[in-house]
Specification:
The chain is of the alpha/beta class and about 550 residues long. The protein has 15 helices and 24 strands. The structure holds flavin-adenine dinucleotide.
Length: about 550
């Protein structure tokens, strides 16, 4: 088959949610890129379904919140998490109540709230966002065959699966967003060890109209099934109407359930025979993994290519979205020429510790959910009568209490920071406690810049995204030398005066520099003596 050669500043391997986010954010910044995706863009086994707060803050920045809200999930479907033995005829041990998506309110720390949109609804939204930019070229049915990195860039070979045509793409940078089985990662020689396996799980998406009329439990979002053997399966409402995802959790022994086995397991969880259609099945391996290296000078691992975790907690794609927003502005800086050599290298230095933290927490959530396997539930909880009722009350309360750390994760989604980053100037204040369930906003350098409402519908976060922003909370502070120093190095930076005491308190200093990704890079009550040196640190010179 004949081959042609093309050129692009950034080639993105993999058009899953993370690859499309990198493409969309680059497109939004005016940087051309090509995305190659071996699939056709449709998702028949939605994995991710919870968009965390930070992801929604990115969607706000991109102007696509209403696209997300209207993507397809039934927004008045109940979101309770329920612990039970069976949906019909079984016992309910506990129920954590959550608002329906349409009733979610924003926490004080964010202008957004989390959203429920499984990947079959969300991927088309993020694809639409990326593809609206004429300079973003998304090519489906196209696979990455391999690449060579050289001093000036990356030479990749890609193949159109339908026509067989091979194209050579010369790119300045390659973003490896090709998921858990990453070809880019393998080519870089970054290992995915066997020890990373947590469970061999099988999922099935099934459809059943009128499901809630067949069972005696009230609707909810997630159902965790606990039998005498411990926690064994989950069902989640995948569209809030008639589709559900069943997961046979499995264990460390290699096993994939056949479709007849899945049918039996689904009936066992539902507690009765009923008519349903299995739309798709997916055996998958739950892993705890963070790549040793996040890439080279010109090739980067992003999203699941760089880290894999148990879905318990919904951290996988959300962590990948943060990766995407971290690398994208650095790629822009490199392509436009104002980024120094250390800027792209800071991607791994900043993001890898966050992945280590999130992956560990996801495994801890899995262990909590599965703790009933080691310490079996009391047998009385499966028996009728007052003794059973009492045992269920105690067991349910304990299990609910334990599961809270998986459901309330504000600290994981917002409270990550970039300690020891080579492109952040520390201010000498001590590291805050690493919170999981709660989050105390801080503008300590490295942290996500705090949200404060500046006017109805206008958050401080709405100021950030394109270029650096120098926030000034007192007009007495001289900001000009920093703006001049930035301009001299071609670094985009503008001044925002904020005259609002609550914002000044949240940011803690008179002058604060916020990066394009919305993280604080520097703060002080006065400018440093050598602004040019500070600008050089921030741009990775
Ligand atoms: C059951 C389950 C539930 C989950 N729930 C959540 C959740 O609620 N929230 C959350 O944040 N995360 C969740 N996750 C994790 C989440 O789905 C992943 O983290 C996310 O899909 C990663 O996105 P990605 O784009 O990095 O990789 P992927 O989604 O794997 O996309 C990679 C893409 O690359 C393409 N590709 C691969 N190789 C090539 C090649 N050689 N050439 C071209 N294209 C290629 C693939 O076709 C694919 O489209 C869940 C995971 C599972 C299994």
């Amino acid at each position: 088959m004949t081959s042609t050669t093309e050129k692009t500043p950034v080639l993105i391997a993999g058009g899953g949610p993370v690859g499309l986010a990198v493409a969309g954010d680059l497109g939004w910044r005016g940087i051309p890129c090509i995305v190659i995706e071996k699939g056709d863009g449709s998702v028949n086994q939605p994995k991710m379904d919870l968009l965390g707060l930070r992801t929604m803050e990115f969607c706000r920045r991109w102007g696509i919140v209403d696209w997300v809200e209207n993507a397809g999930y039934e927004r008045d479907h109940p979101q309770d998490c329920v612990y039970l033995s069976a949906l019909s005829g079984g016992f309910e041990f506990g129920r954590d109540f959550f608002p329906n998506p349409c009733d979610e309110v924003c926490p004080p720390q964010s202008p957004q709230h989390r959203e429920r949109q499984p990947q079959n609804f969300f991927d088309p939204v993020i694809a639409r966002f990326a593809r609206q930019f004429a300079h973003v070229d998304v090519r489906y049915h196209t696979e990455m065959l391999g690449f060579e990195e050289h001093a000036g860039g990356v030479r990749a070979e890609v193949r159109n699966i339908q026509s067989g045509k091979i194209t050579v793409i010369e790119a300045s940078y390659l973003a490896g967003c090709d998921g858990g089985g990453s070809v880019v990662r393998a080519k870089l020689g970054v290992k995915l060890p066997d020890s990373a396996v947590l469970t061999y799980t099988t999922n099935a998406i099934f459809r059943c109209a009128g499901f809630w009329k067949l069972v005696d439990k009230k609707p909810g979002y997630r159902f965790i099934f606990i039998g005498p053997e411990g926690t064994w399966a989950t069902i989640v409402a995948i569209n809030g109407r008639d589709e559900y995802r069943f997961s046979f959790v499995g264990d460390g022994n290699k096993r994939a359930l056949t479709e007849p086995e899945l049918r039996e397991a689904i009936k066992k969880a539902v507690g009765r025979d009923f008519d349903f259609e299995i739309l798709s099945t997916m055996p998958w391996i739950r892993r705890e993994y963070v790549a040793d290296s996040y890439g080279t000078e010109r090739v980067f691992l992003i999203g699941d290519a760089a880290h894999l975790n148990s879905p318990t907690g919904a951290f996988g794609m959300n962590t990948g979205m943060q990766d995407a927003v971290d690398i994208s502005w650095k790629l822009e800086a490199a392509v436009r020429g104002w980024g120094g050599p250390k800027l792209l290298q800071s991607y791994g230095a900043e993001r890898r510790p966050v992945a280590l933290r999130n992956v560990k927490e996801a495994t801890a959530n899995l262990k909590r959910m599965m703790s009933t396997r080691e310490k079996k539930p009391p047998k009385e909880i499966f028996e009728n009568g007052p003794a059973g009722d009492r045992a269920r009350e105690i067991f349910g309360a304990e299990y609910m209490d334990m599961m809270k750390q998986e459901w309330f994760t504000l600290g994981i989604h917002l409270g990550y920071w970039y300690e020891n980053s080579p492109v952040i100037v520390p201010d000498g204040t001590p590291q805050p406690p690493d919170e999981v369930m709660t989050y105390t906003q801080t503008a300590r350098p490295g942290s996500r810049a705090p949200h404060v409402w500046l006017a109805p519908g206008k958050s401080t976060l709405d100021l950030f995204g394109k270029g650096f922003v120098l926030l000034r909370f007192s007009t007495e502070a001289d900001a000009n030398p920093m703006l001049v120093a930035a301009k001299a190095k071609g670094v985009p930076m503008h001044l925002e005066d904020i005259n609002q005491p609550d914002a000044a308190t949240a940011y803690g200093r008179k002058l604060v520099i916020v990066r394009p990704d919305g993280h604080v890079a520097w703060r002080g009550d006065h400018l440093p003596p050598d602004c040019a040196a500070t600008i050089d640190i921030l741009r990775g010179a």
